[in-house]
Design a protein that fits this description.
Number of helices: 8
Strand content: under 5%
Length: 254
């Protein structure tokens, strides 16, 4: 072999240490492979963005729920207690809406609705808006978990198709002809699963925390409702083993 050709061959080997890696496989796949890869990356980035933003949103609400007992119900009136909360607090929004509904039940559009029902409707609507904010973004996670594996599967089909074309052109199934397309197919399958599995896990995790937050919201709404209509907060008993046993025995008798 001529010295020049030998040096060129060594240069090619040195330059392409791993000809079957991610980037070479995407280059061989062309625009389709790059397009599917880009879609999966975008879905993954948005998934993790939703996770961190929703997690901090939920943490803020749970922290506020812990402060409600100290700030709101220790005050002389509900209005004074609500004023202690942050202006953008969901719990303050709920209290303000309840107070506004209680104070402005003066007839007109509410002629046929009594004060109890009007306050209940207002608090339910306010709690529903908070729930809608908490649920925003979760539909994207559900869609990602459902569709990402199929996007990866499409990349797999394209890779296998290219491998079959190379075999047909070469006339034999040599490893150098099929390794690139098959590697591309496996990579796209793995990417689809790598995007879908975290999306499903994050969706279930955030959905569970949303239920916990809404329990706090609904409990506070019930307390506000009781305070506005009776002038006092509904008393709560701390659950103890004895109380639980008594309640269970009573339910069994019924």
């Amino acid at each position: 072999m001529a010295p020049g050709l030998a040096l060129a061959a060594e240069g090619e080997v040195a330059a392409g240490e791993n000809p079957y890696g991610l980037i070479p496989a995407l280059k061989q796949g062309g625009p389709i492979a790059w397009g599917l890869f880009g879609i999966l990356i975008i879905m993954s980035v948005v998934t993790w963005y939703i996770f961190f933003t929703k997690w901090f949103q939920q943490k803020k609400l749970l922290d506020e729920a812990a402060d409600v007992e100290k700030k709101v119900w220790s005050a002389a009136t509900l209005k004074e207690g609500a004023a202690k909360l942050d202006k953008d607090s969901a719990f303050r929004q709920l209290a303000d809406d309840g107070l506004r509904a209680f104070d402005h039940h003066e007839g007109r559009l509410t002629d046929q609705i009594d004060q109890h029902e009007w306050v209940t409707m207002t608090l339910n609507r306010s709690a529903g808006l908070i729930s809608s904010k908490l649920q925003s973004g979760l539909s994207f996670l559900a869609s990602t978990g459902a569709t990402a594996p199929f996007i990866g599967l499409l990349g797999t089909v394209v890779g296998i198709y290219r491998a079959l074309i190379n075999i047909g052109i070469a006339g034999q199934a040599s490893i150098d002809k099929v390794a690139g397309p098959v590697g591309e197919a496996l990579i796209m399958t793995a990417l689809g699963l790598a995007v879908a599995v975290p999306a499903v896990l994050i969706y279930n995790y955030l959905n569970g925390r949303n239920k916990l937050v809404m329990e706090k919201i609904n409990t506070f709404a019930a307390d506000v409702h009781g305070y506005l209509l009776s002038g006092a907060r509904m008393a709560r008993t701390t659950p103890t083993p004895a109380n639980v046993a008594t309640a269970t025995a009573t339910a069994a008798k019924k």
